[in-house]
Amino acid sequence: VGDRCYEEGMYEAAKLLYNNVSNFARLASTLVHLGEYQAAVDSGRKANSTRTWKEVCFACVDGEEFRLAQIGGLHIVIHADELEELISYYQDRGYFEELIGLLEAALGLERAHMGMFTELAILYSKFKPQKMREHLELFWSRVNIPKVLRAAEQAHLWAELVFLYDKYEEYDNAIITMMNHPTDAWKEGQFKDIIAKVANVELYYKALQFYLDYKPLLINDLLLVLSPRLDHTRTVNFFSKDAMQYAAESKDAELAEKLLQWFLEEGKQECFAACLFTCYDLLHPDVVLELAWRHNIMDFAMPYFIQVMREYLTKVDKLDASESLRKEEEQVTEPTPIVFGQQLMLTAGPSAVPPQANFPYGYTAPGFTQPPVYGFNM
């Protein structure tokens, strides 16, 4: 009879009947429909059924009775297979703060499991990133690290990502993350501890370059850590290349020449030859010639001198062509005017015509009177 009353929506009658027969599971469902959430929670305790707790919890969430919902939720989250549905129910309705509060309260339960710690870490990464680091430091061993790693990366929580990589023994990824995001993720002590554990040797040299770019004053500390693992020849060449680049960018000829001398003092003829081209524009050929001659390494310097010779010959050819063009232009004179045997000057007024002017036969200049002249003056 109680079930029939319940199905037909006669909840008050169903309440009385279920109470009389101590059917607390059905009574809790009935009280939910009546909006009597506190009584529903009390009945849920007596029923002690996961299904009943879910119904009571979800009803309290819909009624925004979050304190009571949390009481029901604490009886649900301890079941790993029920956790996902509970989280979705809260999240779909936008109750993130309430969900976080529920999981935080559940961490102290005796039956707390990995899923609870993991899901809370993911929620922190999305909605309360400032709390994630503390959570990980306390419970990193109780979370599903790969799952939380993905959440931290999606949320761009680089420091937390490095922390998890370190705990998960993904040392290469930890170092790469610190170098890619130094502002958020790099810490000197942590970097030196992890770099000694990486498997990829190339990361040693990338780390050296990283320190040269961002922390040059700490490069010696890093070298002390890496020295047992570095190829010393490659390391010296690495720094030689960097020194050459620095000298070239400094535009300081004296510095470049001192670097050349240092290479020769250290017996690094190959570096000497490379520096000749890296710092080509700063070097004086006479200085290079003297150094090469003194150390008997003309073969290493010869490509440099070939280039210098080519450059100077090109300049000389251009100057020669320019000088030839200038001389040709000076030799060009203005055209000589054509002089006729009979000059004719026509200007206004009789005074403009010189007395000796002879006009062609039969011609009289305007404004002048002149008797005709027969024949031509020879």
TrEMBL record:
Entry-linked SMART domains: CLH (SM00299)
GO cellular component: clathrin complex; clathrin-coated endocytic vesicle; extracellular exosome
MF annotations from Gene Ontology: clathrin light chain binding
InterPro entries: ARM-type_fold, CHCR, Clathrin_H-chain/VPS_repeat, TPR-like_helical_dom_sf
CHCR repeat extents: 1-69, 74-220
GO biological process: intracellular protein transport; receptor-mediated endocytosis
Record-given protein name: Clathrin heavy chain 1-like protein
